[in-house]
Every structure is written in C-alpha cells, then in structure tokens.
Design a protein that fits this description.
The protein is of the alpha/beta class. The chain contains 31 helices and 24 strands. It has an 8-stranded mixed beta sheet, with helices on both faces. It has a 7-stranded mixed beta sheet with strand order 14-11-15-16-18-17-22. It binds thiamine diphosphate and magnesium ion (MG).
C-alpha cells in the first residue's frame, strides 16, 4: 500500500515548491544544493522557463507596459511610417497618415466589438444590430475610398490593403458565425498569437473533404442517438442535446488537437445536458450499455454495493485514439448541483499532472461543459476562475464549453443574468472567449481547435460559448411553450444542425442526398443492433478501484486501527529535521524561540504539542513515500500561528519548508495558502484525493463554521460520493472548533451537521484531545487498505494547552489510535466509580481540571474521540466496567440542539442496555438549545461554561 511516486524525478510536478526552494537556493549559491540538482539546474540554464513558470504569479501582472500594443503612436509608430512612405512617393503625407490611423482604429474596433455584429444565434431571435464604430463611415471613409491602398503595417497580416479588402477580412473574421473577445487580455503575445491565427487573407474556416465528412458523421451520430432514444424510451428523461449537436464534433476536435500537442489525459466535467450523448459519442461508452441502463438495469456488476445514481450523473473513463495518439478520458461523476463538479475536475487534473510529472501542464487538460444559465449564475464558476492562475491550484488552463441554448429550464437569459454574455466572468482572468453559432459545425470545430492550441501554448483558461437552442423542453417530457411560445414556434420549423450541414455539403457537391441518407440509416441500423444486444447486456466489470486504486478494497468491519506507530529513533530524526534552522535561513525571532522549545521537547520527550504531532505525522508519511498536500486559508503559518510549516526568511522573504528537507527519497510536501473561498478549494482537494489515494490530502477551514460555504461539496461529494458513484476519497477536513468565548461565529464547526450526514459507513468524524491521537488518525488515513473522508474538529486553545501534550512513546512502537480514551491514573477502583462522564474534545480538559480542583475521586471521564463510526462495542465494554456507577452523563459545550448529543444519546443507551447497566440513559449536561451557536458576551460564555462543567460533575 505504499506505492512510491517517482518523487525523486526532477520533472515530478508535485515537487514544484520543493524545486522552487532548491532553485532559489541554487541561484543564491550553487554550492548549497546537492550536485545532482546542480547539474539539472545548470542544464536548465538555457531554458529556465519551466522553473520560472512554477514560481510566477498570476498572468495579470504589470499591465501598464503593454498599452498601445497596436504600435500606432509615437516615433516609429504606424502613423509615422505611413507618412514617411507617402513622402518618398510624393503622395499626400497627411492623408496617408490619417488613412492609416483611421484604418487601424477601425481594425482595432472590430477586434474589440466585432462580436456584437456576429451571426451567433441559430434562431436569429435578435438579429445583430448596426454599430457606427464598425462602419467605415464612422471613420470618415466614403465609398470613394474603398479601393485606395492603405498602409496598415502588418495588421491583418498585410503590409497594405484596400478598405474593401480590410472590411472583407474584418467581417469574415469577427462578424461571421464566430465572434471573438480577446482584447481584454493585457498580454501582447497572446493577442498577437490569436490575430495571426485568425486574421488575414487565407485564415477563413476551411476543412478538407474528409474533415467535412467526419463532422457530418459526428452530427449524424449525435442526432441519431437522441432520436433513437426518443423513439425507444419516449417517456424517459435524458436531457438531450438536440439543438446543440455541434458540441460533439467540437469535442472531438479538442481531443484530437490536444493529442497532437502532447495531451495524454482529459479530465472532463459536465452537467445533465447532452451527457448521454457525450458518453456515447465522445467517450465511446457502448450504446448497448447505455440502453441497458435505460431499461432500468444497473451500470455496475452485481458484486458492487452502493446506493447508485441516475444515469446522467455517473462518471466514466475510456481511451480514444486519434492519428496514433492515445488520450485517456475521464468524466467525473457529478450531482445535480450545477457547476459543483468544476473544482473537483480541476483537482483531479492537478493530481494527474503531479503523477505524470507534467510540469508545464500540457499532458493533462480539464475540459468542463456548462449550461448558459448555470455558468452565469453559480458562484463556483467565479471561484474556479479565481483559482485558475494560482500556484497551488493551477492546472495549465481549463477549456470551458458553454452549451448556450439561451434558456435555463423556463427562464430566459434576460431574467437570469446581468451581463451581456454568460461567459463574461472569464474576462476577469483574461481568458479569450470564442462565441460561435452552433448551427455552423465547421465554425464550432474550428474554434475548438484554436482554443486547444491557445491553451496548450499559453496554459490558461479558454471559453467557448456555443450559441444553440434546446429543441424540447427542459427534459423531453416538459412543455416549453408555456413560457417561451415564440422561441418554440421558431424551433418547431427550424431544421436540425445536421440537416443544415448536410444540405451545405450536398450543395458543395461533396455528397449526394443518397450519401447523407445512407449515413443516417446506417447509424440507425447500428443502434438497432445495439438495442437488441442491450436486452441481455451485463456489465462485466465495474470501473471501481482501477489504476492507482488497484489494491484498495471495501473497509473491514473491525476497529481499523492501521499500523500507525513509528520507531522512536525515526520520530526523533524527523523531529530534529523539523526544528533545525539551516545556517542560511533567518527565521523570525519568535519562531526561533518556538523551534528551540520544540527541539527541547523532542530531545527530552517532555511533551510535544499539537502542531508537532501533526508535523511528525506529515514528516513520517513523507519519508515513507506518501506525498502530503494541505490547503486552506493561511495554512502555511496556520491561522493560530501554530503550524509554521513555511519559514519566511526575514531578510529575503524566501520560503523554506522543513518538511521538504527531511532527506533524499522523501515524497513532496505541499502546503498552500488558498484563495479566500471554501467551496472551490474544498472541491479541488476532494478532486485531488480522488486521483491520489497514496497521498494525504487535507483541507483546512480558517474556522470550522466557514465550511458551510462549501456545503454543496460536503453534502454532494464528501459524504455521499462513495455510495452514489463508487468513488473513494481519503480527504481530511480540519475544522477548528471549540467554545472559547470568541462569539457566535468562531466557536462551532457545526459538528452536528457532519454527524447527521453519517450513515452507510460513509466517513469518519473525530473530536480529539491529544497530539498523539491526531498523529495516529492522520497516519491511519494512509496506512489502511481503504479510504474514507475524515472530518476533524480541530482545536484552537488546545494547540497551546499545557495538558494537551503527548510523549514520543504515545506515537512509538505499540501505540495506535484509540476511539475512546479513558483517564490514566485518576480516581479510585472502577467498582467505586459513582459517576461516568462521557464527552468529546476540548471540554474534557475543563472537566478534568475542575474535577482535580474539587478532589473528586469517584468520577471517571471517558472521551469519545471518534464519533463516527461510533465505537459502540468498545463503549459497552467500558461502561460495563463501571457497573456501580449511579449516573452516566453526556457533557458538551455546544447547545443541546447542536454538538454530538442527539447523535450519541441513542448509542449510549444501546451500550448501557447491552451490558445490562442499571443506568438506562445518559443525562445531558451542556448549554440549552439555542438559535445561535454561542454568546457574543464573554462574561456570559464563562458563566455558561462553568455551569455545564458544574452540572456534569454533579455539584
Ligand atoms: C445549483 C442548482 N440549482 C438549481 C438546479 C435546478 N436546475 C436544473 S437544470 C436548471 C437550468 C439549467 O439551465 P442551463 O444552465 O442553461 O442548462 P440547460 O439545461 O439549458 O442546458 C436548473 C435551474 C440545479 N440543478 N442546480
Ligand atoms: Mg441553457
């Protein structure tokens, strides 16, 4: 289970921050890095871009240097050049310069606003309007000027051209069935690249006869598949693609072009619309398998458990080959919640890139499909754009395709978005946006190709906004004319994309009517055969636990401790590396003192604190070859200034990560201060964990209550993904929790919510009290042959509590995680115990300290460290040991309607019953039910806390 990543390879992308640290050190002084690294850095000296790429920030930096990218003004500018040329040939100098300036302005305005006049809507509901900035007259040109050559100095790929030709090229390039928005990009090189790719005399969309036939063929499949389903499964919802079939040849173009440009893997995410068509016609899922599912059969083999999901949510994977290039496609399973899968897909892509050593991120691409209404409305779209350029989360650019059918369920765009296009948010990260008319499949295929080339060249997000329509209602049984009667009257008589394109190819003389009909009939015949075969179809394998998941299995029913103990000398060695400041790093004075204290604690084994327990867990996993990735707001230092896993040199601000300096052969530690988002970051880490079972992946909330901003990821993926889609995840969520008088918003991580989500052995929820328990629970995530998400109520004040410390022995040989902890060496003989207090988390220390103060000897405290799966049998055994106890109390800090009370009470009753205890049920000691999790008044907090401790101790 300790599959080794090739983390020693220089090109292992997960090493990026490690490489970066080393590279920075090398630049400062080549002798400070190992000889093998030195050689590599020397070899890279000619092309240091790979290293720099990983170091650079987002691409919006320094825009001012890039103004006047047309080079129109000033000495050497186009205007001056035109004037000089005119002077040498004796022409009108002023007129020539003016012509050039006016033509350049005209060209520039087409580049900026040409899309407004483009023919994008297949239904033509709102014909493109006129715009003075796009008419030559607006620049003082008249009909008489049309044929005079104008010097344009390379614009449109031409030295000079007549106004007639300029207009012809501009209209074709910017106002045809393609409308491009890219002039919001600051980078001249990216704009130039696009201009050179699309502008000019021979840059029109053009396909070979084979290319055209392939497009028609794909359209015939897309249309034929939907029609066939409509006939055979008339009343079944499938959220068909009808009206947007050009998506299918478009996606083919992305995979094919990508394959030519080094792509090996595509991580796909998409909503309901057209999903079945994509599965069949892009991912090559057998039609008979799909038809079998339509008949109500399961998509997995009988031996697989799980609650299952509807067919338009399931994931899939396959290999496609184009021109000898094989590309692996993986479609993420997704919930109904539109756009929620986006960060998951990106996290999956990032993990794959790390595994392939895809440092420039051209081998793995995420492609995400969207509906127009969802893309404009869902906040996760904006969050993912915000992630897209950040060092810890970038994936080298996502290709977004909006299937813009100009409607969302029953809502028209004018009611569902405030921006002109659904794609406008993409401008924030300077993505080029290709609007395209879905009834021109050649144009769609063309922009998909360009978008892929752009992404592979510049490694940033690209958006394709395919205008189309939805032929039926929201689903096939829904009536659209209640709400959009005019649109649907138009659609009723509108020919299909395939019909339009077939007619075009017949008119071009490429095909006969007979050829076209043959294509349709041939495909229909194939589907009939598949339909017959579907009746007896049985899936022969479930794509569960394949690839990197090979060797994992269903979780056993035992205590699942895992082998988490670590030899003492190993703990000391890792501890020494973690507290040793290299001579060339100047740490902050306070940190220096802290490290010295930690060093002493480890050397003398005088009690390691929470952060050290965590660092030892991470460090030992890393040295065992398991990468660790932690992300969250301010996670590098830690919100409570406790983690310090990145040391910032006080003179240079260079970053030093002790966990990446443990020794040769270690795996990579990544810690990322995330952007200030919860949903996208949690989704990203969840996605990462889906593709990296051998790494420890953690997301940390700043305070636990902020996690509800990511509720959709928790509900739809973390807690139910395995059951719905047979996808395991070992993701850890760290949620600071505890009542410390900080007010309503920073006290509760809403433990009750997680406990309420528990069922079917879906995840683990813990509320721990010692660093050693934390150490083991983290290591346990990796050292067992299955994966389950782990929800940790992580501490705040316990981070520095004098009693919340552990010894190295607690982590050393023979030690392990305990689901229940009892007091050591406290009180009297078990038979004399009168009161058993059960609790979980930080309140234990309040209870224990007060018990000591009061000298209570007959009160025993049991800590339920793991709340789910609940350790019922173990608790029964423990309670049975206190047969003389007169009361059993559940004590919690949280109000009665929160915390663990309603979760634990029935379990405790069952355990008491099981051992025939004379106490039948636990007594509650805690805050009364309340609307807000905690009081904002400190004095009241203190009084409430004292009262609940008092009640628990039975004063
Ligand atoms: C987060 C979320 N809210 C609401 C819904 C319900 N819903 C399903 S489809 C849909 C309309 C989607 O419109 P659009 O994104 O344009 O996709 P289309 O169906 O037109 O392809 C809505 C509101 C949902 N699935 N997810
Ligand atoms: Mg829509």
């Amino acid at each position: 289970m300790t599959a080794q990543l090739d983390t020693t390879s220089f090109l292992y992308a997960g090493n990026s921050s490690y490489i970066e640290t080393l590279h920075a050190r090398y630049l400062a002084d080549p002798n400070t890095v190992d000889a093998s690294w030195r050689q590599l850095f020397e070899a890279l000296a000619d092309d240091p871009t790979l290293v720099q790429q990983e170091q650079r920030g987002p691409s919006w930096a320094k825009p001012l240097a890039l103004l006047d990218d047309e080079g129109l003004l000033g000495p050497g500018g186009k205007a001056e050049k035109a004037a000089k040329q005119a002077a040498t040939s004796g022409a009108d100098v002023r007129g020539a310069a003016l012509d050039t300036i006016r033509a350049a302005m005209l060209i520039r305005n087409y580049r900026i606003r040409g899309h407004l006049k483009a023919n994008l809507d297949p239904l033509g509901l709102e014909p493109p309007g006129e715009h003075p900035e796009l008419e030559p007259e607006g620049y003082g040109f008249t009909e008489a000027d049309m044929d005079r050559p104008i010097f344009i100095d390379g614009m449109l790929g031409l030295e000079s051209a007549s106004l007639r030709e300029i207009m012809e090229i501009l209209r074709r390039t910017y106002c045809s069935t393609i409308g491009i928005e890219y002039m919001h990009i600051y980078h001249v090189d990216q704009k130039r690249w696009l201009q050179e790719r699309i502008e000019g005399r021979e840059k029109e969309v053009s396909f070979t006869p084979e290319g055209k036939k392939a497009i028609l063929n794909k359209l015939s499949e897309a249309e034929g598949f939907e029609r066939f389903c409509q006939i055979k499964f008339t009343t079944t919802k499938r959220f068909g693609l009808e009206g947007g079939e050009a998506l299918i040849p478009g996606m083919e173009a992305i995979i094919k072009t990508g394959g030519q440009l080094g792509l090996k893997d595509v991580e796909l995410g998409m909503p309901h619309r057209g999903r079945l068509s994509v599965l069949a016609n892009v991912m090559a899922k057998p039609f008979k398998a799909i038809f079998s599912e339509f008949q109500g059969n399961s998509s997995v083999t009988d031996d697989v458990e799980g609650s299952g999901d509807v067919k338009y949510h399931l994931g899939a994977s396959s290999d496609r080959e184009f021109d000898g290039n094989t590309v692996h496609l993986s479609l993420a399973a997704n919930p109904s919640h539109l756009e929620a899968v986006n960060p998951v897909v990106n996290g999956k892509a990032r993990a794959k890139q790390a595994q392939l050593g895809d440092l420039d991120r051209t081998q793995v691409l995420s492609v995400i499909l969207h509906g127009d209404a969802a893309f404009a409305g869902q906040g996760l779209v904006a969050e993912c754009f915000a992630l897209s350029e950040l060092r810890g989360y970038r994936t080298g650019g996502t290709i977004h395709i909006i299937v813009n059918n100009q409607i969302g369920f029953t809502t028209s765009p004018k009611f569902s978005r405030s921006s002109p296009y659904p794609s406008d948010l993409a401008k924030a990260v300077q993505s080029p946006i290709f609007h395209v008319n879905g009834d021109d499949p050649e144009a769609v295929t063309h922009v998909c190709k360009i978008a892929t080339e752009f992404r592979q060249t510049f490694h940033k997000d690209v958006v394709i906004d395919m205008f189309c329509y939805r032929r039926h209602g929201h689903n096939e049984t829904d009536e659209p004319s209640f709400t959009q009667p005019l649109m649907y009257r138009k659609i009723a008589t509108h020919p299909t994309t395939r019909q339009i394109y077939a007619r075009r190819l017949v008119q071009e003389g490429l095909l006969t009517e007979g050829d076209v009909e043959g294509m349709v009939a041939g495909f229909h015949e194939q589907l009939e055969k598949e339909f017959e075969a579907s009746k007896s179809y049985k899936p022969n394998k479930s794509d569960w636990l394949e690839g990197r998941w090979t060797g994992f299995g269903v979780a056993p029913k035992d205590d699942r401790r895992g082998a988490t103990a670590v030899p003492l000398d190993k703990l000391r060695a890792v501890g020494a590396r973690l507290t040793e400041v290299p001579a060339n790093v100047t740490v902050h004075r306070t940190l220096g003192r802290l490290l010295a204290a930690k060093k002493k604690a480890i050397n003398e084994d005088s009690g390691v604190d929470w952060a050290t327990g965590e660092a030892l867990a991470f460090g030992t996993l890393l040295t065992e070859g398991h990468p660790v990735r932690l992300s969250g707001q301010d996670s590098g230092r830690g919100t409570f200034s406790h983690r310090h896993s990145v040391w910032i040199d006080q003179n240079s601000e260079e970053r030093f990560m002790p966990l990446n300096n443990l020794g040769a052969g270690q795996a990579q530690y990544e810690v990322h201060d995330s952007l200030l988002s919860e949903a996208a970051v949690l989704g990203f880490e969840y996605g990462f964990s889906l593709n990296e079972p051998n790494g420890l992946v953690l997301w940390e909330a700043q305070f636990g209550d902020f996690a509800n901003g990511a509720q959709v990821i928790i509900d739809q993926f973390v807690c139910s993904g395995e059951s719905k889609w047979l996808r395991m995840s070992g993701l850890v969520m760290l949620l600071p929790h505890g009542y410390e008088g900080m007010g309503p918003e920073h006290s509760s991580a809403k433990l009750e919510r997680y406990l309420q989500l528990c069922g079917d052995d879906n995840m683990q929820v813990v509320n721990l009290t010692t660093p050693a328990q934390y150490f083991h629970v983290l290591r346990r995530q990796i050292h067992r042959p299955f994966r389950k998400p782990l929800i940790v109520m992580s501490p705040k004040s316990l981070l520095k509590h004098r009693l919340a410390v552990s010894t190295l022995e607690d982590m050393g040989p023979g030690s392990s995680f305990h689901r229940i902890l009892s007091d050591k060496g406290v009180g009297v003989d078990a038979n004399d115990v009168k009161r058993v207090i059960l609790c979980s988390g930080k309140v234990y220390y309040d209870l224990a300290e007060e018990r000591e103060k009061r000298g209570l000897k007959d009160t025993h405290i049991l800590r339920i460290e793991q709340l789910y799966p609940f350790p019922s049998a173990k608790l029964a055994e423990r309670l049975g040991g206190y047969g003389q106890a007169k009361s059993v109390v559940w004590c919690q800090e949280e109000p009665k309607n929160m915390g663990a009370w309603t979760h634990v009470a029935p379990y405790i009753e069952e355990s008491l019953a099981e051992v025939g205890h004379k106490v039948k049920r636990p007594v509650y000691a805690g805050r009364k039910a309340s609307a807000s999790p905690a009081t904002g008044l400190h004095r009241q907090h203190v009084a409430e806390q004292a009262k609940l401790v008092d009640e628990a101790l039975g004063a």
